[in-house]
């Protein structure tokens, strides 16, 4: 099935590229594009089989996302984050999973994980209020997963939870207007004093320690992978794919271009241009190879039923942020050496440059923090972080 998804995604690329301008103008992916993506099966790759999903090897999912991103960074980003949410829903208690997919297994989920919500214990559950930003693709979602802190009677936070909320319990504020990833529709979400039953909350501590309640009904190896790898790879892969697409566009545009200055001649015959292409290609390859190596080795451990060692989880975070850093280095080289041609709005290289840099500011792509965390672990010091 994963092969069929990849072939369907590849066939869709020209259409996604044609729609990229309109996605930017609308500041969101169209309903038509979301339906086309759903038809490829990409949103079902990480969904449990018992709800009609594929439970694919996660490497196949990231390959599909990277391919989509070569045509349109915004579409790739939405495919990545919306597509990885079924994996997390599978970790919730069974009752919550059935509420999401019982009547319609094709329902989509958006998220905003920053713990800006406030949860107050109330009866058999909580009251939730808050305003969240950057909920990519939320206009197309039937459910939302939102980060929130449980507040005790003294007003201090006592726990960090992810809360599952139906779309009708939230208000979406149309505020997304960004320099990059403009078409992702990453609007704000507001929830005002809504009751949330206990089965619709998930403790982040339990997830990071691989003991989520959903594992009782979804025992497959896919759900034995760490959140800190599944989610962070999902926000790096579209950045890498976007730059990969920019590289191909660069070669097409510059291969036969004639220089109008510096003595004229073909651009492709300039040694500096040749070095730039080599540097960019190497950075993209290194990013892809390390991302794929880490996900593959973790999944192999999960399939074998062995515990995924912490050194592997920290290595995955190290290489994930370095993949983002490498992709930015590559697209910067391409943007600079393309000259004035890369400045025109809507140019594939210009858009990729903006989209890649926009994706890099996501908290999961914070290079220095993740590298320091790896170094701390390697020196044998205690590290507490939910994104490992």
What does the model show?
- This protein is an alpha+beta fold and 388 residues long.
- Helix content is 50%, strand content 15%.
- A seven-stranded mixed beta sheet has the order 5-6-2-1-3-4-7.
- Helix 9 runs antiparallel to helix 11 (367-378).
Number of helices: 11
- Rg (C-alpha, Å): 21 Å
Low-confidence stretches: none
Tell me the overall shape. Answer: globular
> What's the mean pLDDT score?
95
User: What does the largest sheet look like?
Assistant: 7 strands, mixed
Could you spell the SSE succession in H and E letters?
Answer: HHHHHEEEEEEEHHHHHH
Tell me the fraction of residues in β-strands, as a range: 15-25%
Number of separate strands: 7
The side-by-side strand order for the widest beta sheet comes to 5-6-2-1-3-4-7
């Amino acid at each position: 099935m994963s092969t069929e998804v990849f072939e369907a995604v590849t066939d869709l690329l020209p259409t996604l590229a044609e729609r990229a301008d309109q996605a930017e103008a609308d500041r969101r992916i169209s309903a038509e594009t979301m339906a086309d993506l759903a038809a490829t099966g990409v949103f079902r790759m990480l969904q449990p089989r018992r709800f009609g999903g594929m439970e694919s090897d996660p490497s196949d999912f990231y390959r599909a996302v990277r391919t989509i991103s070569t045509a349109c960074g915004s579409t790739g980003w939405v495919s990545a984050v919306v597509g990885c949410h079924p994996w997390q829903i599978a970790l919730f208690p069974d009752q919550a999973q059935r509420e999401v997919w019982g009547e319609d297994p094709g329902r989509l989920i958006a998220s905003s994980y920053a713990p800006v919500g406030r949860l107050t214990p109330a009866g058999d559950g909580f009251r939730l209020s808050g305003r969240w930003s950057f909920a990519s693709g939320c206009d197309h979602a039937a459910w939302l997963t939102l980060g929130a802190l449980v507040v005790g009677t003294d007003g201090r936070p006592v726990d960090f939870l992810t809360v599952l909320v139906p779309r009708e319990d939230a208000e979406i504020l149309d505020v997304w207007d960004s320099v990059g990833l403009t078409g992702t529709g990453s609007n704000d979400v507001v929830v005002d004093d809504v009751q949330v039953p206990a089965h619709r909350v998930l403790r982040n501590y339990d997830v990071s320690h691989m003991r989520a309640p959903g594992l009782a009904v979804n025992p497959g190896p896919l759900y034995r992978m760490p959140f800190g790898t599944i989610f962070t790879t999902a926000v790096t892969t579209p950045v890498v794919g976007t730059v990969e697409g920019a590289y191909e566009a660069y070669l097409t545009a510059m291969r036969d271009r004639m220089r109008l200055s510096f003595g004229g001649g073909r651009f492709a015959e300039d040694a500096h241009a040749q070095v730039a292409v080599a540097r960019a290609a190497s950075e993209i390859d290194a990013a892809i190879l390390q991302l794929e190596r880490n996900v593959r080795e973790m999944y192999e451990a999960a399939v074998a039923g062995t515990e995924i060692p912490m050194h592997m989880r920290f290595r995955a975070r190290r290489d994930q942020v370095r993949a983002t850093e490498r992709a930015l280095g590559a697209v910067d080289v391409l943007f600079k050496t393309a000259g004035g041609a890369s400045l025109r709005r809507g140019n594939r290289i210009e858009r990729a440059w903006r989209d890649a840099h926009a994706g890099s500011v996501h908290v999961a792509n914070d290079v220095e923090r993740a590298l320091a965390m790896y170094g701390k672990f390697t020196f044998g010091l205690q590290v507490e972080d939910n994104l490992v």
